[in-house]
Amino acid sequence: MYKEKIDAYIDSKRDEILGDLMTLVRIDSQRGEPKEGMPYGEGPALALKAAREMMDRYGLITKNYENYVVTGDLSELPKELDILAHLDVVPAGTEWTVTAPFEPKILQGRIYGRGTADDKGPALAALYAMRAVKELQIPLKKSVRLILGSDEECGSGDLLYYYKLEEEAPCSFTPDAEFPLINIEKGRMAPEFCGEFPEEEVLPKVVWFKSGDKVNVVPQKAQALVRGLERKTLEEKAAQIGEATGVSFCFEEQADGILITVRGKAAHASTPEEGQNALTALLKMVSTLPLGKSRGNQILMGLNQLFPYEDTKGKSLGIWRQEENSGSVTVCFSILEYGSGRVRGQFDSRLPIGCTEENTEKKAASKLNSLGLRMEENSMKAPHCVPGDSDFVKTLLSSYERYTGVKGQPMSTGGGTYVHNLERGVAFGCGMEGVDNHMHGDDEFMEIDTLLMSAKIFADAIVKLCS
């Protein structure tokens, strides 16, 4: 009954939506140094201010929570639905080709700029869905609150602050993922570990080893300095490992040894099988060398056994398990610093339903402890799941199906979203299957047709949930 009105309304607001999105994209809202009244710096605070002015202009009841979040309520009726989006962005990037990161540009049905897809565009799709319902005067029995945050990319401290003051709504979704809908988010364990070993001049030896700088990225470069072996021996071993793994090796003779550099392929830590881990490839190569018997060399051999290149499922670490709906454990050994009698490392594991402190965190800690290494405690975040057969999930999927004509099924992800800690929260839009929006990369964009359709889907869902 109301679908035609919503469709016509959203289509008529195309230029306004794009204009508002350009306003937000022009604000560099990367996290900055805290200032008085600006917990995440000036940029995020300016983005919240601009968004609140838009919500005021479109008749929502707004509130600023000390520049952590701003909210806009559709009405004063009891709240049924929270929609959570964020206005902070990842670093700008340096290799844009279509436009500069904060100079939005429309080209061939797309709008380019940092935040267009993650998450300023989806935030405006939600805002215009609410505006459509309000201005079309579609009768509702419950209200909706749009929650716009400013720290999603750096830990979601904004929501920690907000939910100390406010209760979770009966239903929540974030338009910061993909359609159809994500109802299961794997848990995560990304602990640091460390240890010490005596410096022994036993040759051959690895003098130092270094790889990785971000725990949630498969490292694409690793280096080690080896002393006491001929270059020919190293090249022979490297050729075997390179053929098996696809990584490349190069060597540089220095006064105190031979520097080995490995280059692999980066990927997100939640999908380590898509990358070529330079760290574990170099560990694999080092483990084949005729090194002398020393405590330091034993630690490197042990780490290779716990995190072998071929194993991205945590089987060697003793934490592998698989669950029908949420998939398998994944493990990415991301960071290793070794030398001068110290070793420090970190790995990133994504955990399906059924992983617990007992069968996951304690097992990993025990394995590392067997090498004389200490693992950080209380590092595990539990998996998140909203039942796929719940009325809430079914309602959202029905709105997706109504506008796409495609049957929607709930999905799981190894990544985490804004609703991971909400009992009744799911991720719903705005990415479309098969479309790479270059989120977190250069030349990020949002397809304009997808942006408009998302607003229509959200409006349809609001009416169904709140009538």
From TrEMBL:
Record-annotated Peptidase M20 dimerisation domain positions: 258-294
Domain of life, per lineage: Bacteria
Annotated EC: 3.4.13.-
A Pfam family reported for this protein in Swiss-Prot or TrEMBL: Peptidase_M20
Cofactor dependence: Zn(2+)
UniProt keyword terms in alphabetical order: Dipeptidase, Hydrolase, Metal-binding, Metalloprotease, Protease, Zinc
First-level EC class: hydrolase
Keyword Transferase: no
Gene3D superfamilies given in the database record: 3.30.70.360, Zn peptidases (3.40.630.10)
Entry keyword annotation includes Protease: yes
GO molecular-function term, one example from the UniProt record: dipeptidase activity
Xref: InterPro entries: ArgE/DapE_CS, Bact_exopeptidase_dim_dom, M20A_pepV-rel, Peptidase_M20, Peptidase_M20_dimer, Peptidase_M20A
GO biological process, one term: L-arginine biosynthetic process
Family: Belongs to the peptidase M20A family.
NCBIfam families to which the protein is assigned, alphabetical: dipeptidaselike
Protein known as: Sapep family Mn(2+)-dependent dipeptidase
Native organism taxonomy: Bacteria, Bacillati, Bacillota, Clostridia, Lachnospirales
